[in-house]
Amino acid sequence: MIKYQSVNINFKPYFHGLAKWIKKVIIRDNFVPGDLMYVFCDDTYLLEVNKKFLGHNTFTDIITFPTSTDPKILSGQIFISIQRVRENSESLGTDFEDEFARVLIHGVLHLMGYNDHSEEEKRAMRLKEDKSLSLRA
User: Fold this and answer.
1) Strand 32-41 vs strand 2-7: parallel, antiparallel, or unpaired?
2) Continuous segment of H or E residues that includes residue 64
3) Given its phi and psi angles, is residue 109 left (phi above 0), alpha (psi -120 to 50 degrees) or beta?
4) CA pair distance 68, 90, nearest whole angstrom
5) Which of 16, 40, 56, 84 could form a disulfide bond with 61, CB atoms 3.0-4.6 angstroms apart?
6) Domains (ranges, CATH) in the chain?
7) Residues 6 or more apart whose Cβ sits within 8 Å of residue 12
8) How confident is the model at residue 137 (pLDDT cuts 50, 70, 90)?
9) Separation of alpha carbons 42 and 47, rounded Å
10) What are 85-105's pLDDT values in tens digits?
């Protein structure tokens, strides 16, 4: 089940077929959709999560916490700063909805085991994001 929650902001994901698309990406990669909780928040809230749980005193657009004990079932909490996604879409010259979709699926890819620490990992993650975005209806 995919759920959405807003903290410190008034935001609801608004494009049609969002959960269906996320599940399609999960199944395509041979995982089973579990329980996903997306928490949409502001920069301040996500900074506090980053400090408290990861020891990082930096702003970020997304933090992902896996919650499944079975590696084939994708479950977790995905925190997304809507402020940061807006800023990124403006600075990159992309549509907010496209950037938002990219970040949503970025969290799912982290749950699948993809990372983005090295340049090589970032390229692989970007390719997976692009393939996932092409599945949007």
Assistant:
1) parallel
2) strand 62-66
3) alpha
4) 35
5) 84
6) 2-133 (3.40.390.30)
7) 4, 6
8) low
9) 9
10) 999 999 999 999 999 999 999
